[in-house]
Design a protein that fits this description.
Layout (H helix, E strand, L loop, with lengths): L2 E9 L4 E6 L5 E5 L15 E8 L5 E8 L7 H4 L10 H28 L6 H28 L19
Antiparallel strand pairs: 1-2, 1-4, 2-3, 4-5
Length: 169
């Protein structure tokens, strides 16, 4: 994998130094012999492109080093490095934010949908009407029972004729 970095220390007399990787900020060993093309001498602050390998002493070293703009892959400098995936807490915070936004949209949608389908009469009004209707039916049944017990039986469905007291006289 190709890395990009900056020369942070350079000893011209001894021909080695150190470079810092841009992505991680890690410092690695850099030798003059690792350069593939030397169009100019290395100096502190120059941008370079390189591969990383394990050196003779077990430390990370740069190899196939070239100046970032002089490399054959100089077009890679213009392309931004791929974004790192969110890690740990950032991923959880992102997920919570998405859930929060979705729940707000759901509440708004439900509220708008519910407000369009609300009955014109409130539910309490309907319940009061039902109570009065049931009370009227119960009262009618009680009256029918009282009439039946008192002998005012109306089986034929026609009202009984009132007795006329004047005809007997």
């Amino acid at each position: 994998m190709r890395y990009y970095g900056t020369i942070t220390r350079w000893n011209s007399k001894r021909g080695f130094g150190a470079a810092t990787i841009e992505d991680t900020g890690q410092e690695i060993f850099l030798a003059l012999a690792a350069f593939t093309t030397l169009t100019r001498l290395p100096a502190e602050g120059q941008h370079i492109s390189f591969n990383i390998t394990e050196g003779r002493r077990g430390r990370k070293e740069a190899e196939n080093v070239c100046f970032a703009l002089d490399c054959a892959d100089c077009f890679d400098v213009l392309v931004p490095p791929p974004e790192k995936p969110l890690a740990g807490k950032q991923a959880i915070v992102g997920l919570i934010a998405v859930i929060f936004v979705c729940s707000i949209f759901a509440v708004l949608w439900y509220g708008l949908h519910f407000s369009e389908n609300t009955p014109e009469e409130p539910v309490v009004k309907k319940q009061e009407t039902m109570v009065h209707e049931v009370a009227a039916k119960i009262e009618a049944e009680r009256k029918a029972w009282r009439d039946a017990v008192n002998g005012n039986n109306q089986r034929s469905g026609q009202p009984q004729r009132a007795k006329d007291n004047t005809s007997k006289q």
